[in-house]
Design goal:
Keywords: FAD, Flavoprotein, Oxidoreductase, Redox-active center. Its cofactor is FAD. The chain is an alpha/beta fold. It folds into 4 domains: 169 residues, FAD/NAD(P)-binding domain; 111 residues, FAD/NAD(P)-binding domain, CATH 3.50.50; 113 residues, 3-Layer(bba) Sandwich (FAD/NAD(P)-binding domain); 99 residues, 3-Layer(aba) Sandwich (Oxidized Rhodanese, domain 1). The strands form 8 sheets. The protein has a 5-stranded parallel beta sheet with strand order 3-2-1-7-18. Strands 9-16-10-11-12 form a 5-stranded parallel beta sheet, covered by helices on one side. It is globular, with a radius of gyration of 27 Å. The model has no long low-confidence stretch (mean pLDDT 95).
């Protein structure tokens, strides 16, 4: 068998390596139009900032490595121009010599990746405007910074890569401004969690403009759509990527609803003996089962391995993704998996959410607060998605949630997990368990939650309600939700006769625990409709700021 793979980064080289492990006799050839292969794209921001000092550390393998270890021939600077699926031939251009050559395949893998989206903005071709998608981009950015010592930078877009570059530029002493056309940073998060990230960025000296677009880029500034000008010696366009599908489309290969190459669970396209993997191919979501496009290095490696197995007779199948992501920004860790609240509602789920604010381990062991937003389906009790921000232990928790959602766990299952506990690592009831307990109560008991948005709707309605601030009186005086009355938890039992048992009642505290305790007292004394404010006063104030 002659196997040809187009593309030699994460998915293409993974496919080649797995194919060779399965079949020692196959001819395996990879063509790539770039000069660098099998590199760590996710490490590029840290080279720009100097945390990774040697660029070669991000490029651990070259064509000679694959030839020596796997007997795979990789031809760099060779661009595949066309595919003939009837005769199973390729037309290839050697970009170094200009020569055109032909090749043939028995099976073909398209792993052409994705390219940075260039927004329709004037001035994007100035020498100080960059995208960051490959090693060549990274080296150009590094050289520009070293040679020009920019004092100010604008990053357009606030996805993972944009924020990671933001941190690294700031570490170099560059004044950084983020510009996001959406009303919040980190578009993958819900607004009530994104606000924690935005405030953290501002505390670290980052200038932020949201809900506005750039219309023009000059050599020393960018122009916003409302006419405001922002200084910028350096501009990074971090506005997403698009799958490289032109070659596939010309060959009659079908695209999916997300605009990437449509494949089945065996990574097969609609054309016989042609497969696709990595950032150019479509995935499907574990929760909804629907097609999505979420290009990630981890997914590229996984789909590449599956493809290499399938083309050599193996039985691996792709099982979907959750869109899991994690990144670090000025010491804060931000992670997400599964559906966001807005995505879940769009999909038609009867959504219940909680905001669990707990230390990652006991405070006497230096525990630091983490905020967990859990999204569940009220009808089935299944966990749909989770978002976390915090400074320690976020990665540990998100991976537990990923596993739970993957295996279709119900919220009550989280409490029954036998998670590792010792004071240096966790609290006795881990924040994962607490999240399950809160959601389970909200779904399966009368311990209902109310979100900040729902509380606002109630306040602005004509319904009969009472809002109880169960914190200490001094905290109420310092700040409280409008229309709330102060009844500290310790005095609530003595104040029951002053309350309207027929009214909708909402309790709250700082973060939710004492509010729940107050809710329990009221329910146990015959109050019929009592809600606890999710995430308490702290999350309410954050949520209001996100609007």
């Amino acid at each position: 068998m002659r196997l040809i793979i187009i593309g030699a980064v994460a998915s293409g080289t993974s496919a080649a390596a797995k194919a060779r492990r399965n079949d020692e006799n196959a001819e395996i050839i990879i063509y790539d139009k770039d000069s660098f292969i099998s590199y760590s794209g996710c490490g590029m921001p840290y080279y720009i900032g100097g945390e990774v000092e040697d660029a070669d550390k991000l490029i651990p393998r070259d064509p000679a490595f694959f030839k020596n270890k796997y007997n795979v021939d990789i031809f760099i600077r060779n661009e595949v121009l066309s595919i003939d699926p009837i005769y199973k031939t390729l037309e290839i251009k050697n970009l170094s010599t200009g020569d055109i050559l032909q090749d043939h395949y028995d099976k073909l893998v398209i792993a052409t990746g994705a390219s940075a989206v260039i927004p329709p903005v004037k001035g994007v071709h100035h020498k100080n405007v960059f995208t960051l998608r490959n090693i060549g981009d990274m080296k150009q950015i590094k050289a520009y910074i070293n040679e020009n010592a920019p004092k100010s930078a604008v990053i357009v877009g606030t996805g993972f890569i944009g924020l990671e570059v933001c941190e690294n530029l700031k570490e170099l002493g560059i004044d950084v401004t983020l510009i996001e056309r959406l009303p919040q940073v980190t578009p993958g998060l819900d607004g009530d969690i994104a606000v924690y990230v935005e405030e953290h960025l501002e505390r670290n000296g980052i200038n932020i403009f949201t809900g506005i677009s750039v219309v023009d880029i000059k050599e020393d500034k960018v122009i916003l759509e409302d006419g405001r000008e922002v200084e910028a010696d350096f501009v990074l366009l971090s506005t997403g990527v698009r799958p490289n599908t032109e070659l596939a489309v010309k060959a009659g290969i079908e695209l999916g609803v997300a605009g990437a190459i449509k494949v089945n669970e065996k990574m097969m396209t609609n054309v016989k003996d042609i497969y696709s993997c990595g950032d150019c191919s479509e995935q499907f979501h574990v929760v909804t089962g629907k097609p999505v496009y979420r290009p990630m290095g981890s997914t590229a490696n996984k789909t590449g391995r599956i493809t290499g197995d399938v083309v050599t007779g193996g039985n691996l199948s792709f099982r979907g993704i959750l869109g899991t992501g994690i990144f670090k920004i000025f010491g804060m860790t931000v992670a997400l998996t599964g559906l966001s609240e807005r995505e879940a509602k769009k999909e038609g789920y009867h959504v219940v959410v909680c905001h669990n604010i707990k230390p990652n381990k006991p405070e006497y062991m230096g525990g630091k607060e983490i905020v967990i937003k859990g999204i569940a389906d009220k009808d089935t009790g299944k966990l749909l998605g989770v978002q976390i921000v915090g400074f320690e232990g976020v990665d540990k928790r998100i991976d537990v949630f990923v596993t739970a959602i993957t295996y279709k766990a119900h919220v009550e299952d989280l409490f029954h997990l036998d998670l590792a506990y010792a004071p240096p690592f966790s609290t006795t009831k881990d924040p994962v368990m607490y999240t399950g307990m809160i959601l389970d109560n909200a779904i399966h008991s009368d311990r209902k939650l109310i979100s900040s948005d729902e509380l606002e709707e109630l306040i602005n309605s004509s319904k009969n309600y009472q809002l109880i601030d169960a914190r200490a009186a001094s905290q109420y005086v310092q700040d409280h939700i409008e229309t709330a009355v102060s009844i500290p938890h310790a005095k609530l039992r003595d104040s029951l006769d002053k309350l309207d048992r027929k009214a909708i009642t909402v309790t709250y505290c700082n973060k939710g625990v004492t509010g729940n305790a107050a809710q329990n007292i009221l329910l146990n004394h015959g109050f019929k409709e009592v809600y606890n404010l999710s995430g308490g006063h702290k999350n309410y104030r954050k949520s209001r700021k996100s609007l």
